[in-house]
Design a protein that fits this description.
Elements (H helix, E strand, L loop, with lengths): L6 E11 L2 E9 L2 E10 L2 E2 L8 H15 L3 E11 L5 E8 L5 E3 H7 L4 E2 L3
Parallel strand pairs: 3-6
Antiparallel strand pairs: 1-2, 1-5, 2-3, 4-8, 5-6, 6-7
């Protein structure tokens, strides 16, 4: 049971950029935390503003296609928040074979983000 302490089911409400999204988190027993902003942990994607705008929009659109409006599992990093008050999390998406894919790693593998150490 301890291994699931910081794992939650959630539904993605919106995707802001390639490493930030808003979710509704199922805390169980009919209790939901709505509109929570998440920062995908361990990765950094180009910003949607500034000189990297083109790459940032590509990363955002890719993440939207993957998770927007979908149910996910998230693993928060011991409920740690980043410098902008967003929970840091790994996002897991069900695949077609009954398994799970780590979305953070997938963004790096597909070239939309890079690994980043906080």
């Amino acid at each position: 049971m301890e291994q699931n302490k910081y794992h939650y089911r959630a539904r993605v409400v919106s995707v802001y950029d390639g490493d930030t999204c808003t979710v509704d988190i199922d805390l169980d027993l009919g209790v939901w935390l709505r509109g929570e902003k998440l920062r995908l942990s361990r990765i950094d994607a180009p910003e949607v503003r500034g000189e990297d705008r083109k790459q940032g929009l590509l990363a955002r659109d890719y993440l939207r296609r993957l998770i927007d409006g979908r149910e996910i599992l998230l693993h928060t990093i011991k409920d740690k928040k980043g410098k902008y008050g967003r929970y840091l999390a790994d996002i897991w998406l069900a695949d077609d074979h009954g398994g799970w894919r780590n979305v953070n790693d997938l963004l790096v593998q597909e070239g939309y983000a890079r690994y980043y150490r906080y």
